[in-house]
Amino acid sequence: MLIALCALGLALRLGVIFKTQSYRFNPGAMEHDSIARGLLHGQGFSFGDFGYYGPSSVQSPPYPVLLAGFFTIFGEATPAAYAAAMVFNALVGSLAVWLTYLLARTLGGSIGVGLLAAAACAVWPTQVYASNFVQAIDLIIAAQTAMVVLFYRGVRTGSAWTWAAFSLVATLAALTEPVLLPIAAFTGILILFWRGLALRLRIRNAAILLGMALVVIGPWTVRNRMVHGAWVPIKSTFWVNVWKGANDYATGTDRLKITPEQKKQLEEQLLTADDRHMRQAGADEARQYDMLTPQQRSRLNGHTEIEREKVFQEFATQWISAHPMGYAKLCLIRLGKTLWIDWDNPKSYNVAYVASRAIIVVLSAIGLVLAIRKRWSLLYPVLLIGSCILTYSLTLTAARFSIPFEPFQLCLSALTLNCAYISIRRPAAGGAVAAASSGQGT
Which of 13, 43, 103, 96 is nearest to 414 (CA)? Predict the structure, then answer.
């Protein structure tokens, strides 16, 4: 059944990719595209912005390097190369279906709950649609889900190999998505106090995780030190993101506030799956960078990423100091957009997206209460997801940031549905037994 569900998930993801054919005109590759081209032309891991082109850490290395490989095989920036990247995403997304089943079982769910969660992951609109972009979303979904599964298996079995697998996945996940770096580092401390393991096993596991971090993340951090002249663990975009989320035009995301006219036009197209109306509305074009004043741009133009980070740090800290209540309000807005939807993102104006987000939020909230009552193993996933949500709330969020949390939410939602089914079935079964015992049934 799991194989069938993974096959279904793959088929749906491939169907969306080749139905929309976004690889022909809008692959959504962001900075990955430019960096991959630079790698092909011998310019190293470089990116250009504000009139400067040079060594960059604007993105983490895994996906641009992967995309450069597809460019090498299928042609630079060709539809075939973008399609290959999306097919790769779909394959990873189908793996996430299996991992969602393992997650449900690892946390404490029954086989039925696990299969229901896997089925939901196979068909859930946001999970399916994630493969349709040349981005690392599917990789992050799979890695984040595997982290929780391997963590619990590592501490329950005491196996050094299982913990080494966790350490590899955790460090690769952090290298791909830096928001996971704090929880990966904290795990090294947490494991030292894990009472279910002998002290020597705790020390061994902490050493394995530290060693894996030095092997996987260490070379990239050293490279950043060499090219930037500063210690940058993974990405050099912390302060620019803080500024994007803390300025006079901030909405909590990189997008600007949608005007009432744009919102009305988008709401009229809520039931359509075609995104051409978004471009016609002009609501998906403006970004926070567009609101920089000429004076601010003059301080940024021609400078390296690290120099620009210092300038953005000045912009952000000055604004937060002058508007402490405004910053607090934006933190709450970012929290709401992370947990719910980004109402300033035109792509959110789609009935399938809104309905799927509403269903998963409600069902997983109920499921969380049920999981606590049933003593599911929730500590590590709550710490992991909580650290991510806290970071997004304090800095910057986006609609795609909540998608890697969905396998966990689908497990909780499956528990809710399973408990509802059992509660409905039991009275019906009890009624049938009572009728039979009184001679009113056969």
Answer: 103
